[in-house]
Predict the structure.
Amino acid sequence: MANLRLENVTKRFGPITAVKALNLEIRDGEFFSILGPPGAGKTTTLRLIVGLEKPDEGTVYIDGEPANEIHPGKRDIAMVFQNLALYPDKTVFDNMAYPLRERKLPKDEIERLVQATAKSLYIDHLLKRKPAKLSGGERQRVAIGRAMVRKPKAYLLDEPLANLDALLRLEMRVELKRLQGELGQTLVYVTHDQVEAMSMADRIAVLNKGVLQQCDTPEAVYNFPANRFVATTIGSPPTNFVTADVRPHGDNLLLAHSVFALAVEGGRHPARAALESAAAGQALPEKVLIGFRPEDVRVSTSQANGCNVPAQVSVVEPLGGETVVDLRMGGDLVKAVVPPTQRLEERRHVWLNFDPERVHLFDARTGQRVYTTGQGEPFACLEAVH
């Protein structure tokens, strides 16, 4: 197993900064996911760890030792590429045996290790076939087996499931999680698919344009996103954002949207303190972004108890187990997730109710999260503006 650490690592390719001042620590035996859109710097980060790229600034550490000058072949880290890079003219056995033959292991030892690894991946019956005769999932297992067979300190997987169909991706997610649990070794998994990262990883690092946005457990990243980018990246459908004016209202603050307002009551409410802290001694921001997830919105055809926000159904998207509804709320279009049994017609006037424990405030200028009601006091009321 291996502890991997990147300290202030920067990598440039000409005028493009692929990774910028990146600080990450990947713990021994951890299933760690690096998540981000294309161009986020995910693959470059893996290549820096394995040694295929050298940092322009900063240091890569393996088990506490600087590794910048260590040759990739001596780092004892296995990497599985998106295109798998299998030898088409070699059998499955020979593909898996290749790294062991490079190490000049005895023939009987190679036979034992390949057979044992193939059995754990359920591909021992395929050892005499060539890659062209395998399905996508089988080829994926062969590539993973070739990495596993030499028992490296850590595994780096670069979008390994991207070329598989939806059902195979689901099966392989379960398989990878099982394997990593059985091996107990460090695994770094790069993906642009937030479902893969959320379902498999112990922790997730979210990257955007080479800059680390947040690194935490899947639960923390989902419930307390560091900024607007993370809140949009994690969750499907993504978080709704609407702009609200910050208005003094006696001793209180009013976060006023065109059709509703959130009241921040009292001078000691933690949301006020958070806004003042974000202002850094300057005047309170004039505007904030109110964020709420579609699954935290309740839609009613009549006013219910509590505060209600008027809206109009725009589009209804039935997805089998749930229905996604696009709603016009003043000048904003927001989404809600409702049960498939709830029938809503387009252009119908409805009422929305947010979960008061799951409302986020973001700085409208920087996009940084300022406050989440689940971390402190909820807002005193959610009321319509007339």
Notes: The radius of gyration is 25 Å.
